[in-house]
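job 3f2a | input accepted
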Amino acid sequence: MCLAAENHNYQKTKDVNNEGKITYQGVVVDDTDMPLPGVNVTFKNAKGVGVVTDLDGKFSIAIPENVRSLIFSYVGMKTQTINLSGNRDNIKVRLEPDVVSLQETVITGIYTRKVESFTGSMATYSEKDLKIIGNQNVLQSLKALDPSFIILENNLAGSDPNATMNLNIGGSTNIVGLETEYTTNPNQPLFILDGFETTLSTITDLSMDRIASITILKDASSTAIYGAKAANGVVVVETKKPEAGRLRFNYNGNFGVEWADLTDYNLMNSEEKLQYEKLAGYYGDLGEDGQIIDEYYRTLYNQRLLRSKQGLDSYWLNEPLRTGFTQSHNIFAEGGDAAFRYGIGMTYTNTQGVMKNSSRDIMNGNVQLTYRIDKFAFSNQTNITNTGIENPMVSFSSFARTNPFYDKYNEYGEVEQVIETIKSPSGTQYITNPLWDLQQKSFDKTNQLAFTNNFQIEYRPLTELRIRGKFGLTVGRSTAEKFQSPKMSTYLTTDQLKRGSYSESNTKSSSYDGSLDVSYGKTFGDHTINAIGGMQISESNTDLSQFSAIGYSSDLFSNPNFSNGYPDGGKPYSTISKTRHASYYANFNYGYKLRYLVDLNLRTDGSSVYGVNNPFSTTWSFGLGWNIHNEAFFKPNDILNYLKLRYSLGNPGNANLNAKMANSIYTYYTSYPNMFGLAALISTWGNSGLQWQRTNEQNFGIDVEMFDNRFKLSTDFFIKKTDPLLLNIDFPPSSGISKVPMNVGAMKNRGVTFTTSYILLRSNDLNWTINANLRHIKTTYYNIGDLLEKYNEQGRTNQTLIRYYDGASSTAMYAVRSAGIDPMTGNEIFIKKDGSYTFKWDSADEVVCGDTTPDIEGSFGTYLYWKGFSINATFTYRYGGQAFLSTLFNKVENISDVEVKYNQDKRALYDRWQKPGDIAKFKRIDDTSQTNMSSRFIADDNTLQLSSLSVGYECTDVKWLKTIGASAFNIRLYGNNLFRLSTIKEERGIDYPFSRKISASIGIRF
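job 3f2a | predicted structure (1006 res):
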């Protein structure tokens, strides 16, 4: 928006106290005619002379007679110069907002640049963009908005509010499937919060109402300023800063209702399950009349059948579930003037999961202070967060597998632990009631307390020169307690003195992060230069101690004093880890007429994560940009408005690894006395020559705006080569050690992303936009050789699908091809590598049968705004990938003699072979032997989901707002994951179900 000033009356008087000077008086207002306190009023070459408007926006300034203009400046407003001419009574200056769109700036956490002068690949989203999608989790909103931001679905954890997200930017840069070898997620991006490094959990728990913007840095040119920590991309989060003026209050409330999505569960009812058990041979052989021969099992079957005929068909899935309610309240008070500003906030968030005894409770308090004096600026942010976590002790799968012909309660309405006792050749079997376990006094709770203080000081000796120092300190405490009642069914046959258990884990953590940098930016005619250089040091410490106790006679007390002692061979455990980093970095940006752009980054990092022979690593990047629309030959038109080409090359690294990965780890031997002192055994050899993991990246990008800026398109094509990779490699037992960290092989990522939007209708009161994004990524290994053959052997033995070969996709699924089920025998027919057929399964015949990474994946949607009302719909999709059908593999086939007693998928009854001539998808119904992995359990997984549907209203100028003393109001209703279409039928949410949600947000400013 342009600045406007009114010509306005002013009063011109001789000031007797200031000989040779004239005093001018007036008032400064904003674009709504509200007074603006804290506005700087000065004049050219003032040499420190100036005043600040008071709380009513008024000012009085004495200036030399030869001065003919005044300069008015205010943060967030366009600077205004007023010529002093004419003979008027007062000066009235109207400042209009300096509305520089977030999409026009790049915030990296170290420096801020205009998009037009930036050569890197990035995307910035405002709070409004994020809140249009949802009001609960900022990262889930990012997933729908940006094609490069990937959150992998966790089919075990489902919608568990306490589950840690598995996410990456632009694909994995580390070996897939072996994350547990690293103890941390090596593919996780770096998170920056208000200029300081932070954790994934901090961002996940951050209230969306506190966020001003989020910037995703994707390629080497944009991330290399973070050097050895930037190979996985960088997510930069900026929170709202306090605004000057009178004391203002802001309230934002978010409320949600959530329920479990069980549409993909396809379990048998009582009659079907009894029929299946009979045909599967659970009750023994059948006579010619189809009746069970064994008298005991015939009686057992008839008793169950009678209950079924009498209408007993228990639905167990609803028992561990509830309707989850979520509420979040954020209050923020702010005010101050041009010199001093303050902001005080309080946030409370309570999330109830859809499973009972599942919740996340967050209380956060924050204080922000900024102070400016002359050429100095100080700011300090303090955050204190307390998080309470509760997890269910009985998994959802325990209820899903319980048979429907069992009663939940006895005739007295009581829950019994054992609902049926079965005698078998192997001994007595007890069928237990999961409701019994649910009602016990077991618990799994964690409490976390974190304190963070970030301080920053700036000095500007010149307008174009800035010297800045930052120091951040974080201290955390965490206590996790898990108690299993001695009455739990898992202890039913356990020795009385060993029933029940308690475990406690205490973690103390601390970290600091300090940096000093100098930046310079200036335009010399057609030449623009921006440069920054600095250094950074950081340290992170973790002290973990834990112990376990067993043997409780009662669950009335969980204190370990009531236990019988440690588990057999057990004792307390403790570990201390420390990670240190030191870095030196520089960035240089040059632009000629904003046409030709060059970005250079150089950074040297030292880290204790790597070997002492390679403590430091230097990373770099080089970026080029060409703003074709600024060329002299490019004439302004209504068709092509903006055209920019980008290229970047660099080699950022990855230090997101185990703190002790390069060091030898010793275990102290304390079982027997030693006359020579305490003995220590090496459990893991270090590797002093461990090399830094680097990713060589190339990115080609194009940004286009057309048709009077109605159409926008941003495209990136990237190639990433990570060489070398890092992994713990097993050593022979004769060496006396188990694993050694080594540099192993390499991997390559190729991908392309598209983001586009088009404004169908546009006017002052109406805006209708459609948008879409897409990504295609392929990742392959190379230079691995046979170093990971051990993991391939484990995969064949354990019937898993992931393999590690040169040239193979990191997400490819390996299995033996299947020709289906033989209609005459009901056995599976396999296809060997040479194309011949056989009834014998051989792991040597396995080939690639699919890939979990889809050919394309992304989202599309529409947004309509009219006179304060708005509606948004966002759909997500994936096409061309495959999925392993776990339900078919484990609950249709592979049902052993033991598993057959639990409830199964309906297809185990209706789609398995029963007699010669049957054309069936699955093998003989009475075959309880192990099913080997084949292509029958891999299928195309194409999905379409309504991720978000929202309707909202916002206003700033209606009469009732002024009546209550408010200046802005907004309300929005959401529906998330309301429907999902898929080409496969697969149980989703094994241990914790997925959910659907309806929520609302409300905001008001006073």
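job 3f2a | The two ends are 25 Å apart (CA to CA).
job 3f2a | closed
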